[in-house]
């Protein structure tokens, strides 16, 4: 088993006034050659958007973009004609493919929006752009692993063009469970949304990240009531 530990305060940080963003991996003005990606997990941004503010229309292509709201409501509009609002307890996915433009705004007058913006390098280029958004039935599987993303359109959660699985673990203090990887060529990047946990001898606090690979399984233990996002992704970058 190989591991990498990213303490929460080691992340890059950008303060644009209306936007405060922590970057687990190199992004925009934060460039760290040792923090470029974890396998095909390219971006993990922990964003906070002020009321009435947001990201103006901008383009993407050949990337799987996942948004997971943690607080507040985020309005989304794109060049595919989508107009929606995503809220805590939902997950949004957009396959940029051949190209898409979108905007994201916090339309609330008094409430911050906090959300994770995650980019996954796809295994197929130049696909037709698409959008999906679902409720993830938050807390439905207390003290168990709850799948929210996979490669299979017919499986639980949203799907993307990559051999990846996202799992939510909402564990009460003292709960310990083994997670079996779907593919031995994959690794798992754990991100602690709330609380604290352990993987082996590694203690993890809120907003810490921990990557594990070259293993078939790992054991996650909550050392207090916790919410953890597990992102199982291929470790080898696709050949372009």
TrEMBL record:
Fe cation binds at residues 58, 60, 102, 104. Keywords: Iron, Metal-binding. GO terms for molecular function: metal ion binding. The keyword Protein biosynthesis does not apply. InterPro entries: Pirin, Pirin_N_dom, Quercetinase_C, RmlC-like_jellyroll, RmlC_Cupin_sf. Residues 11-120 form the Pirin N-terminal domain. CDD domains: cupin_Yhhw_N. Residues 148-233 form the Quercetin 2,3-dioxygenase C-terminal cupin domain. Binds 1 Fe cation per subunit. Its cofactor is Fe cation. Belongs to the pirin family. This is Pirin. It comes from Kaistella jeonii. The lineage of its organism: Bacteria, Pseudomonadati, Bacteroidota, Flavobacteriia, Flavobacteriales.
């Amino acid at each position: 088993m190989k591991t990498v530990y990213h303490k929460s305060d080691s992340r890059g940080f950008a303060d644009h006034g209306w936007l405060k963003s922590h970057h687990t991996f190199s992004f925009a003005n934060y460039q760290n050659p040792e923090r470029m990606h974890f396998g095909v997990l390219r971006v993990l941004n922990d964003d906070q958007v002020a009321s009435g503010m947001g990201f103006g229309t901008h383009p993407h292509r050949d990337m799987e973009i996942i948004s997971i709201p943690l607080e507040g409501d985020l309005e989304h509009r794109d060049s595919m004609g989508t107009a929606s609002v995503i809220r805590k307890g939902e997950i949004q996915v957009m396959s940029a493919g051949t190209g898409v433009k979108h905007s994201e705004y916090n339309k609330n007058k008094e409430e911050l929006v906090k959300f994770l913006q995650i980019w996954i390098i796809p295994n197929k280029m130049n696909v037709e752009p698409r959008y999906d958004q679902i409720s993830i039935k938050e807390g439905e599987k207390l003290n168990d692993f709850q799948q929210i993303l996979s490669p299979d359109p017919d499986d639980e959660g949203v799907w993307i063009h990559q051999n990846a699985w996202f799992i939510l673990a909402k564990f009460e203090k003292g709960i310990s469970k083994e997670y079996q990887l779907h593919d031995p060529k994959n690794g798992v990047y754990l991100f602690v949304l709330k609380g604290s946990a352990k993987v082996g001898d590694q203690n993890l606090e809120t907003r810490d990240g921990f990557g594990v690979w070259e293993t078939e399984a790992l054991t996650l233990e909550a050392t207090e009531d916790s919410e953890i996002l597990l992102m199982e992704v291929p470790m080898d970058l696709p050949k372009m």
